[in-house]
Write a structure and sequence with these properties.
This protein is of the alpha+beta class and 142 residues long. It folds into 2 domains: 1-29, no CATH class; 32-132, Lipocalin (Beta Barrel). Helices cover 18% and strands 35% of the residues. It has 3 helices and 8 strands; from the N terminus they run ααβββββββαβ. The chain has helices at 6-19, 23-27, 120-126, and strands at 36-40, 49-52, 57-61, 70-77, 81-89, 99-106, 109-116, 130-132. An 8-stranded antiparallel barrel has the order 1-2-3-4-5-6-7-8.
């Protein structure tokens, strides 16, 4: 039986730690690089934000007023495909079917490519470029 070089295991461990996920998350397919909040890159296109949680739920604030306007569930596969299922809120009649997209995160920007969707509003929103919202540290008072 051939032994595996210890350097391989060290490299694998370092890669997992640097990715910000655990090996178990990768195996169980629960690591999702989308987790967190995203906003439209071009503010002239609106102030919409979407927040993805680890439990495969998402919330959309369509007008930037801090309220949840649309919510639902999502599923991500390792081939960078995401399926959206709107469950409630201010959604159109054509948005109760799942929407399937591929996604790409590059240079801090998130872009979607339509695979199949009947929801005109979702298609329009996901045809734009998104950027991650970086949480600002809270100021403490003395």
């Amino acid at each position: 039986m051939k032994k595996i070089n210890p350097l391989f295991w060290i490299s694998l461990g370092a890669a997992v730690l640097m990715s910000g996920c655990t090996l178990m998350e990768m195996v169980r397919e629960t690591y999702v690089p989308l987790v967190g909040s995203w906003k439209l890159k071009d503010s002239s296109q609106g102030s919409m934000t979407v927040t993805f949680s680890k439990n495969q739920a998402y919330e959309v604030d369509t007008d930037g007023n801090g309220t949840k306007d649309i919510w639902g569930q999502y599923k991500v596969t390792f081939n960078n495909q995401i399926t959206f299922r709107d469950e409630g809120g201010d959604i159109g009649r054509d948005c109760f079917q799942e929407g399937i997209y591929s996604y790409k995160i590059s240079g801090g920007e998130l872009q979607y490519t339509l695979i199949g969707d009947q929801c005109a509003d979702r298609i329009k929103a996901l045809n734009m470029t998104w950027v991650r919202i970086i949480a600002q540290p809270r100021k403490t008072t003395k």
